[in-house]
Amino acid sequence: MFDFARTGGHLAVPMELTLALICEEVRERPDGRLDVSGVFHDLAAPGFPARQDRMTILFVMEWSPEEAGPQVFRADLVDDDERRVLTIEGETDVDARGPGAARTRLVLPLERVVFPHEGRYRFQLVAGGDVHEACSVTVRLHTEPAAPAARPPHHS
Questions:
Q1: pLDDT at position 152, please?
Q2: Do 121 and 55 contact (CB within 8 A), yes or no?
Q3: Which of 33, 56, 88, 101 fits as disulfide partner to 62, beta carbons 3.0 to 4.6 Å?
Q4: Separation of alpha carbons 45 and 135, rounded Å
Q5: Facing residues of 20 across strands?
Q6: How many angstroms separate the CA atoms of 103 and 18, rounded?
Q7: DSSP state of 31
Q8: Reduced to 3 states, what is the DSSP secondary structure of residue 136?
Q9: Average pLDDT, stretch 36-61?
Q10: Phi, psi of 133 (to 5 degrees)
Q11: 125 near 77, Cβ under 8 Å?
Q12: In the 3-class helix/strand/coil scheme, how is 34-99 assigned residue by residue?
């Protein structure tokens, strides 16, 4: 349910999270498009706590003209028990000039992210006065498959 604010007799649409993903890399091209590579939803770890050396988070948000100007955001990585594992805080400047909705792209490269235990972790984005469920990753214990049993030599 959205809580619409009345401004000048019109209903203002709140910030909308239009894209959220976890990947290996995001690059912005000269034409303004994004090249995204290595999108993932699952990680395998040899044990816990587990560490992911590198990963990138991408959030794309659309704002109403009434939300122009500086906007504070926070992204929390939480486990299924709502415990925060990681917090990213920042500010973005929403420029509502021009046609269409104002769009903010947050590309957040992360290093040495620690996952304390096996399970599902998700990002919650706090921006525009609301909490938005973003993207998630499931971290599982990776066990090596058992080596096949040695076969006795075959004699003909």
A1: 55
A2: no
A3: 101
A4: 19
A5: 59
A6: 9
A7: T
A8: strand
A9: 97
A10: -70, 125
A11: no
A12: EEEECCCCEEEECCCCEEEEEEEEEEEEEECHHHCEEEEEEEEEEECCCCEEEEEEEEEEECCCCC
